[in-house]
Amino acid sequence: MISPLSVANSAELQALEAQANSGISSQHLHDALDDPNSQVIGYWQPPAPVGHVSVGDILLGYAIVVRLPFEAELQAIGVLPQQQGQGIGGKLIGEVVACARQWQSERLLLEVRASNQRAIRLYQHYEFNEDGRRRGYYPAAQGAAGREDALLMSRLL
After folding, report:
1. Is 111 marked active-site?
2. Of the residues 62, 106, 123, 148, which is catalytic?
3. pTM exceeds cut of 0.85
4. Disulfide check for 128: which of 14, 15, 66, 153 has CB 3.0–4.6 Å away?
5. CA angle 74-125-68, nearest 5°?
6. Per the residue annotation, which of 12, 71, 111, 148 is the catalytic one?
7. Is the Cα torsion angle 78, 84, 85, 88 positive or negative in sign?
8. Distance between CA 124 and CA 130 in Å, rounded?
9. For every one of its 157 residues, what pLDDT tens digit does the chain have, with 9 covering 90 and above?
10. So where are the chain's domains?
11. Is 3.40.630.30 the CATH classification of the domain at 2-156?
C-alpha cells in the first residue's frame, strides 16, 4: 500500500533511512515531512498475522518529491536493502510521477550517483534521460577516496 507520510511517521521513516542509506539527513527527512511543498510517500507492507493478532504495517520504502515553480524534483528514494529488486522503487516512482502531474509540473528532475547503476537503470526504465553531470558532487562512497559525480536526469510530464 502506498500513502503519504506525515510527521507522525517520522520514527518509521528515520529507521528505514538508517537501513536504506540513501544519503538524506534526519533533519532533511523531518523538514520534508513538515513542508507544504514536499510530499513524502511511503510504501507499506501489511504484516502477516501472528495467531489472531496482527501488528502494524511495515514501512518498506519511501520517496520525497518537492514542488518547484515549473518542475518537481525527486530528492530521495529509499527501499530496505532486503526488499530491493521487488518492484517497490518502481511503484514509488509511479506515485512520484502522479504527484508531480497533479501539481502540473512540466518536468521531473533527479540526481543520482554516477556509480549507482541499479538506480540509473530503474530511472531509465521510467523514461528518465541523462541531462548532464555535476563533477565531484558527492563525497566518495564508504572506503573510497575522492569525490563522485552526480548524473542529472529528468523526464517530461
Report:
1. yes
2. 123
3. yes
4. 153
5. 20
6. 111
7. negative
8. 9
9. 999 999 999 999 999 999 988 878 889 999 999 999 999 999 998 766 665 555 568 899 999 999 999 999 999 999 999 999 999 999 999 999 999 999 999 999 999 999 899 999 999 999 999 999 999 988 877 666 788 899 999 999 9
10. 2-156
11. yes
